[in-house]
Amino acid sequence: MNTHSTRRQFAKFSGLSLLGAAASGWLPSMAARAAQASKPTSRKCILLWMSGGPSQMETFDPKPDHENGGPTKAIDTSVPGIRISENLPQVAKVMQHLAPIRSMSTKEGDHTRATNFMHTGYLPQGPIRYPTLGSFLSKELIDRSCDLPSFVSVNPFRAFSPAAYGPGFLGPSWSPLVVNSSMTGDEDNRDVSFEVSNLKPPRNVTSAQADARMQMLASLEHDFLKDRPGAPGRSHVESYQQAVRMMNSAAVGAFNLDSEDDTLRDAYGRNPFGQGCLLARRLIENGVSFVEVNLSGADGAGGGAGWDTHQDNFDAVKNLCGVLDPAYATLMNDLSQRGLLEDTLVIWMGEFGRTPAINENTGRDHWPKSWSTVLGGAGVKTGQAYGATSVDGTEVSENPVIVQTLMATICNALEIDHETTNLSNVGRPIPLADHGSSSIEGLL
Amino acid sequence: MRRRPPHFAILLCCGLLTVLRASVADERTGESTPATDDSVQAVAQLVDGILQQSWQAEIVTPAAPATDEEFIRRLYLDLAGRIPAVSEAREFLADKSPNKRLAVVEQLLSSPGFVRHFTTVLRNALIPQATSQPQFRSLIPGFDAWLWEHIAKGSSYDTIVRSIIASELNLNNGPALASTTSPDAFFAVRELKPENLAAGTARAFLGVRLDCAQCHDHPFDMWTQQQFWNMAAFYSGFSRPEDEDEANPAMMNITEQTASRSIKMAGADAMIPAVFLTGTQPEWEQQGDRSPRQILADWIVDENNPWFAKMAVNRVWAQFFGRGIVDPVDDFSDNNPPSHPEVLQLLADDFVAHDYDLKRLVRVIAATQAYQLSGRQTHESQTEPAHFARAVLRGLTPEQFFDSLAEAVGFYQPFRSDNPFVVDTNSPRARFVDLFRGSAESPLERETTILQALAMMNGEFIDNATSLEDSRTLKAVVDFPAMTREEKLNTLFLAALSRSPTAAEQQRFGDYLKSGGVENDERAAMADVFWVLLNSSEFLLNH
């Protein structure tokens, strides 16, 4: 009797039980999902989310010649004419891959509502539960041959608004796989790793036994759920299927960063965000459609919402940029060198910008009226800055961009028709980007 | 993994024997004395009458009544926060008395499980930040201990709420704020900021979402920015040093001027006075030296407050149905009308008339036919949860889930009643609660994550619980010589699902056991079956 199952032996079990499950029809919704024609695109997306609302003046829209600009200096970039904050020297060198949008104007200055708005394209209202970007985009982009979940979220900070990070009315099959980093080593020699726990069956369970268990579970689920409709049951069955698929896939190796060159790992930065960006590249390479990586803290810059710099803005943003700059620049270079950039859209944004006027605590408060986001890759016309703000930063002076427009642009850069609709929980079809929006012409 | 004491296996088996002998079981009936309060029944019938009318109007066919097996599992989860033990389920199922459902409600209402479960539920509702934000975790034990005392001694709901809002804060206590038996965590998670306290008070006790009105007039509702600050003014006594580091709000640096009755609105110069949400001004002169917080507490729990009682009954209703009559439970507004306003009014009136007695409210809800409907859908019209025409699938709280898992597998959980402040963050319970804390806003949208599935399939805890060497329940069943294969299977089903297998399941699983499963070992096959039951959605969900 075989008491120790190996990965290879175990692989047999998943295929069998999945087939068995599909054949017995215990999962009609999965079957329906598989039958949907997926879009013939190979586009992918990485969202670098800056939780708390990053200051545009200390990142992509410095104002060194105005008192609102504070002490932040501007530096030249690889693109003549575009100058960004001195906090981002490495990013400056990859400006040819980026297109800062300096004219975001969004009217929502509350963390919860703005986080929702920027993550879904819609303001939270009434009973409609809008899906997050990663959910509705991965639904269009999904690569069905990929054994990993189509949407992975790295170190999310969900306290402002849990709903902004969920699949909403699209349902549980479009939830992200959430992975959190763990820190290892001592202070001088710190390392970061990502591990998906419990990927291997218990040692004493043989592959045949595991297989039999899944078969019995499938029949039990079928009997119980056939006249008990509802999201919780559906979600349970689907997550087991995805879990089994992952258990048996070589693609889970993507989570192990050890095989990467040390120099490259150092270049990304040995911190949760830097290594998260490296993980994002590896996941994209392995067929994952959407990866969100959150940056919400750095040494000397607060906890959950580090970019929320009401106090001591200049030091805090400098510290955060110390994490952002190498990670972001290395990611762009790495994607480019591997030929992945043409198909991968990289979005940099937070929920809003910061007040141009500096407050009495040397801080900047919430400011949705004129702020910056950045796009890169996936055929975006990079190497240009889109839109502009007034000399004092308080107004958009050129080409204002609203959230709906940004969403349409993101969809179109990913070769998705932004007017594609999904049926919402209230029975109303909801387009990916709100009605009447169109993408930014100059960028695509 | 901690184990139950050795005598547990014996107890379990004795329980089985008792019930296996039908005569003994018969003798046990009629032992319990149900407290049949006619007025509870009367109100429950009125609620059912209203629901039936709405079903007729909407052409809804309700589900069949729940079987005893469905009922007992659901009731234990909703009242005691866990599934019934095998012996408890057997005892109830064998009971022939017509009043046994009422009797078990009474029994559970006076059990420690009720106190524990309601403490968790109420804490999560009142200080949600304590679970969502790690820096506030340390506030949980003190708050829980305080709530626990109140619920255990049967304090009325208005007493509890008044005690929170008007609490005499021990501001000088500093870091020790976390380790006192007090409601102070309500203030601490809101960082003693008048704005946060105004929004939190309105939401937690009135179901009114003022939050957005802080910065601007509420876009979809009646609330103005002025009203928000009118509410915040009741908490305006708290002030903090100007130079305080926002990242580390030091509670001990905050002082309270209990005479303060107005507040400066952010971004404006005018001082905004304290005014109730209904627009009435407090009559300060008649209040003597009572503080604005005490006066606010009076107004909130007053029987004429338009929201307080309705919000409370709505919350408890949602706990039993997975959905509020107003849903989300804390969103009372013109844009979010109640599905059954008459039920809400009726329950609120009864709640007020009986001095905000939470246990009576639970008795009424548990006595309704609506609560005692089956989860099995027999007609399409039962799909809409707002009809309350079927017991829909709903998620458990992570605490309910782990306590049920512990019950099913015979995992001994020490409870330190002597010192609730001892919290082992690395205990299996703490780890499961962390992993199973959902992000869904409603239990009807609960999602199983891939990481949860992996933990249940492959994790150490379930591995031990389904191991012939390590699992208490499994061992007690497998090695019990006097039980037939069918009885063993039946016991495993009762342990996990609180029901016996159906004929088809008896056949299917029985055959698997008989064949010895894939390992040609009936004992190993027994472990397979137990694993299957624990991994099922039937086990993971309430229904």
Explain what this protein looks like in three dimensions:
The complex is a heterodimer of chains A (444) and B (543). Chain A has a single domain (40-198, 252-443), classed as Alkaline Phosphatase, subunit A (3-Layer(aba) Sandwich), CATH 3.40.720. Chain A has helices at 7-24, 28-35, 89-92, 111-120, 133-141, 207-225, 231-247, 262-268, 272-285, 313-337, 403-413; strands at 44-50, 74-76, 83-85, 98-104, 151-154, 177-179, 181-184, 191-194, 290-295, 344-350, 353-354, 366-367, 371-376, 388-389, 396-398, 421-423, 429-431. The N and C termini of chain A lie far apart (61 Å). In chain A, β7 and β8 form a beta hairpin. Chain A is of the alpha/beta class. In chain A, α1 runs parallel beside α6, α1 runs antiparallel to α7 (231-247) and α9 runs parallel beside α10. Chain B has 543 residues and is an all-alpha fold. Chain B folds into three domains: 37-113 and 309-387, no CATH class; 126-301, no CATH class; 398-540, no CATH class. A two-stranded antiparallel sheet of chain B has the order 1-2. In chain B, strands 3-4 form a two-stranded antiparallel sheet. In chain B, a hairpin with a 6-residue loop joins β3 (262-264) and β4 (271-273). In chain B, α18 (398-409) crosses α19 (428-436). Chains A and B meet through α6 and α7 of A and β5, α20, α24, α25 and α26 of B. Chain B: Residues 1-24 form the signal peptide. Chain B: Residues 47-237 form the DUF1549 domain. Chain B: InterPro entries: DUF1549, DUF1553. Chain B: It comes from Fuerstiella marisgermanici.
